[in-house]
Design brief:
The chain is mainly α. The protein has 2 domains: 1-82, Four Helix Bundle (Hemerythrin (Met), subunit A) (Up-down Bundle); 84-175, no CATH class. The chain contains 6 helices and no strands. Helix 1 (3-23) packs parallel to helix 3 (56-79), helix 3 (56-79) packs antiparallel against helix 4 and helix 5 (118-137) runs antiparallel to helix 6 (142-170).
């Protein structure tokens, strides 16, 4: 076990703490935990590269930790009535579709080399910013908040479609 993997495990352990603070309406502490998780995400990747401590388990745990945090944030904030349900359905569905696609491609024995696209990176940025803005200023600035909600939905759908296209192409169904 190395430091980057320990940071990833720590991030996974922050997820239920984040949810508890959301449930208790302690949005300030939920924000602190969310930002702490984000910092550990950046730090574990940086340390893995700089210290040459990339591991197979780390390559699996890191995206799982990211998905756990974002999916938990979207679902818990939707349950609390702070995010629209349709946005959470889009965010969670995209991740489920991507994971199902990876599973199918792996079961088919096809090589899989996942590189995040620009739209995928933008999706992550907007998904994170939407959570932060929701925790900081829940609907105090409705035009800005609505803009982030719509942009998050658009980027999430576009990157999901792009992953689906790449997955189908990898399976050899289209050329």
């Amino acid at each position: 076990m190395n430091l980057p993997n320990l940071l990833t495990i720590f991030r996974i352990l922050l997820v239920p703490i984040f949810i508890i603070f959301v449930i208790q309406n302690d949005l300030w502490m939920a924000l602190v935990i969310f930002i702490m998780a984000g910092i550990t995400d950046g730090l574990d990747g940086l340390l893995a590269r700089v210290l040459n401590q990339r591991t197979v388990i780390g390559s699996y745990l890191d995206p799982i930790a990211d998905k756990m945090l974002l999916i938990s944030a979207y679902i818990s904030l939707t349950i609390k009535g702070m995010l629209p349900g349709w946005l959470s359905v889009i965010v969670v569905s995209r991740d489920i579709i991507i994971l199902a696609g990876i599973a199918v491609i792996s079961l088919m024995g096809k090589g899989l080399d996942i590189h995040p696209s620009l739209s995928s990176k933008m999706t992550t940025v907007f998904q994170i910013l939407t959570i932060i803005i929701t925790l900081c200023a829940f609907k105090k600035y409705p035009a800005a908040w609505n803009g982030f909600v719509v942009a998050t939905a658009v980027f999430t759908v576009l990157s999901g479609l792009q992953y689906m296209y790449r997955g189908i192409k990898t399976m050899g169904e289209i050329t």
